[in-house]
Amino acid sequence: MKKYLILTASYWSWHNTAAEAIEKYLVNKWDNVDILDLTDLLKKWWDNSRKFYSLSEKMPFIWDATFTLLDQQFTNEILNIIFKSIYQKEFNDIVNDIKPDYIICTFPNWPIFINNYCNLYGKKFTTCSIITDAIEIWMPWYFCSWIIDQFFFIDENSKIYFRRKFKHKINNLNVSFFPIETKYFLDKTEISNQSIAILLTWMKKDFVVKLLELLKKEFFYKKILVIKWRNDKLFNKLKVKNNDSRFEYYDFINIKDELKNIDIFITKPGWAVMSECIAQDVPIIAPNYIPWQEEWNIKLMQIENLWIFEDDPEKIIFDLKYIDWNKFLPNFQNVKKSNSIESIIKTIEK
């Protein structure tokens, strides 16, 4: 039985999504797994930073400035000093207690803690970083990179960008796709436009109202799923006004489980949702995105020709009616890897 320590963080969902999928795989092969969330380690800092991240969604220029600042060497050196002086001892105690054979990072910044630990106690484990961002890989993923034995990337383009940006010379970069449980992969023979889902998170009222008005006039689809998540006010207004039986309203759905019943997904391009859609051959129409947090996901969509970025409701209706969605099937096959988790674990256990 091997011992694993997975280092994640509850900043957005995709870092934890990756960590939890890997944990399930390892537990099923009877390995011992512990997960440490950076937000648990930072505690009061997390209470304040959570408010900051919430504010950055409403005022994206704040995140733009933060991303630019954190993408610098000197900023990460300052973080290193802060982490080392305040939080490092607790991390060291946790590692010494667990005594892992392998450490897996699904969030940046963790290599700082690992490096400081190894400087004190020596390197007693194998390490890897699963880069859960796409295309634009920022400095926190690379800082203290010498302590990481293997890096894993979502796609080939993200790997190439990483190598070029940081002038990385070591042959330890791997393309694994995003860690998703094998059971959530589905290879379709064709894609229709009969069942359409709309995730309201981050969508503007005028856009959604106009889109739904136009959809009511059309007859090419059988069902529209409107999913609330983090948009209560808009969801409640839409639900009250709509009496079309083809429209179904949900506070929440388990997207991974329901994607097999969805043909096309209209949503902002958060990476967890994007990767799950790729895994199950579901094209996305992205009408918006959170700048800097998801801007590079749009870039990946365009480079790999996976789906569509469109913010005009009338053009979306045209796309839904007339695009040959089957043309996306080969592109999904080029990116997704159903053995993503297995390939990561086999690589680091060599």
- Largest sheet, strands/sense/barrel: 6 strands, parallel
**CATH homologous superfamily of the largest domain - what is it?**
Response regulator
CATH architecture of the largest domain: 3-Layer(aba) Sandwich
The CATH class of the largest domain turns out to be: Alpha Beta
Structure description:
The two termini are 15 Å apart. Helix 3 (44-58) crosses helix 4 and helix 10 packs across helix 15. The protein has a 6-stranded parallel beta sheet with strand order 2-1-3-4-5-6. Strands 9-8-7-10-11-12 form a 6-stranded parallel beta sheet, covered by helices on one side. The model has no long low-confidence stretch (mean pLDDT 90). The chain contains 17 helices and 12 strands. By secondary structure, it is of the alpha/beta class. The chain has 2 domains: 3-175, 3-Layer(aba) Sandwich (Rossmann fold); 184-335, Rossmann fold, CATH 3.40.50.2000.
Secondary structure layout:
Elements (H helix, E strand, L loop, with lengths): L2 E6 L5 H15 L3 E6 H5 L1 H15 L1 H11 L2 H14 L1 H11 L3 E4 L4 H12 L4 E5 L8 H4 L7 E4 L2 H11 L6 E3 L19 E5 L5 H12 L6 E5 L4 H10 L5 E4 L4 H4 L5 E3 L4 H9 L4 E3 L8 H10 L3 E2 L3 H10 L6 H7 L4 H9 L2
Parallel strand pairs: 1-2, 1-3, 3-4, 4-5, 5-6, 7-8, 7-10, 8-9, 10-11, 11-12
Helix pairs in contact: 3-4, 10-15
Summed up:
This protein is an alpha/beta fold. It has helices spanning 14-28, 38-42, 44-58, 60-70, 73-86, 88-98, 110-121, 139-142, 156-166, 205-216, 232-241, 255-258, 271-279, 295-304, 313-322, 329-335, 340-348, and strands spanning 3-8, 32-37, 102-105, 126-130, 150-153, 173-175, 195-199, 223-227, 247-250, 264-266, 284-286, 308-309. The protein folds into two domains: 3-175, Rossmann fold; 184-335, 3-Layer(aba) Sandwich (Rossmann fold).
